[in-house]
Write a structure and sequence with these properties.
Elements lengths: L1 E6 L14 E6 L14 H15 L3 E6 L3 E7 L4 E8 L8 H21 L4 E6 L3 H12 L1 H4 L3 E6 L5 H8 L2 H11 L1 H16 L3 E2 L1 H9 L5 E5 L6 H12 L3 E5 L4 H7 L4 E3 L1
Parallel strand pairs: 3-6, 6-7, 9-10
Antiparallel strand pairs: 1-2, 3-4, 4-5, 8-11, 9-11
Helix pairs in contact: 8-9
Protein name: Translation factor pelota
Pfam family, one: eRF1_2
GO biological process, one term: nuclear-transcribed mRNA catabolic process, non-stop decay
Length: 268
């Protein structure tokens, strides 16, 4: 829940409204509210828009696999989108030759699904050795090097939906999700640090304001803890006017803490 505290300035019917008195609103997930502001800065709109889009965009792909089947799923910002299942067709009644052929076809089918999954990182998890055999197959065929995705392997107790829910509650996946969220920020911070040596990067309100005003900045990096600062708001307003990209960091994240050591605002 989010709690809003403020002063009542108007309302209807007027006889039931205590103007200028303090009031608290408790907003829960699923509640619909309307917010009116005299002016919406584009960088603030971007913060809201990015938060909404993040709930819809797949963050990770998941393949829960054992020797009987593979279950595919996407971890979204708001939950899990379960996909198809692929059955292996493996049986102890098969001859060794037929078993190996069936296993190869099974792995090829999973490989095809990995290729088609629209995410950068895929977690392959399972209760037994099948995922390990699949990893060896991927390495031996060179697919691991060819695929433009990061593949991670974890253990889970089963390959049903409950196994996927078990997976996303794990500390390992929490770390992966956090890492995906701040990848862009790390890249921007790396670019900023590289630019310090050549003078292409600036930090601190005075230097950033000068660079933005003189059209010498392409991107401004600012911690969310500084968005209410009047001087920072003026800089960001100039950045918006001059078509300079503004990226807001979470001040509690590692990159945000690093930016804090550069006075919470910088530009590239």
């Amino acid at each position: 829940n989010v709690r809003f505290i403020g002063t009542i300035v108007e309302g209807k019917p007027i006889e039931y409204i205590r103007l200028n008195s303090h009031h608290t609103l408790n907003i829960s997930t699923g509640d619909i509210i309307e917010i009116t502001k005299s002016e919406w800065r584009s960088y603030l709109v971007d913060v809201v828009r990015n938060a909404v889009e993040a709930t819809r965009r797949p963050k990770l792909g998941v393949i829960a696999m054992d020797d009987e089947k593979s279950l595919f799923a996407y971890i979204l910002g708001y939950g899990i989108d379960f996909g198809n299942e692929i059955y292996s067709g493996l049986s102890k009644r098969l001859s060794n030759k037929d078993f190996q052929e069936a296993l190869k076809k099974y792995f090829e089918s999973v490989e095809g699904m990995i290729t088609n999954m629209d995410v950068d990182t895929i977690i392959i998890a399972g209760p037994g050795f099948t995922k390990d055999d699949f990893k060896k197959y991927m390495d031996d065929t060179g697919f691991t090097k060819r695929v433009s995705k990061k593949l991670l392997y974890f253990n889970i107790s089963n390959v049903e939906r409950s196994g996927v829910y078990e997976l996303i509650k794990s500390e390992d996946v929490a770390k992966v999700l956090h890492g995906e969220a701040i990848r862009k920020e790390f890249m921007l911070m790396e670019g900023f640090l590289k630019g310090l040596a050549s003078g292409a990067s600036k930090y601190g309100t005075d230097n950033v304001h000068g660079a933005v005003s003189d059209y010498e900045a392409k991107t401004v990096l600012v911690n969310d803890s500084k968005l209410s600062d009047v001087v920072v708001q003026k800089i960001l307003g100039t950045a918006e006017k001059n078509n300079v990209e503004v990226v807001v960091f979470n001040s509690d994240d590692e990159v945000g803490r690093q930016l804090h050591s550069f006075k919470d605002i910088a530009c590239i």
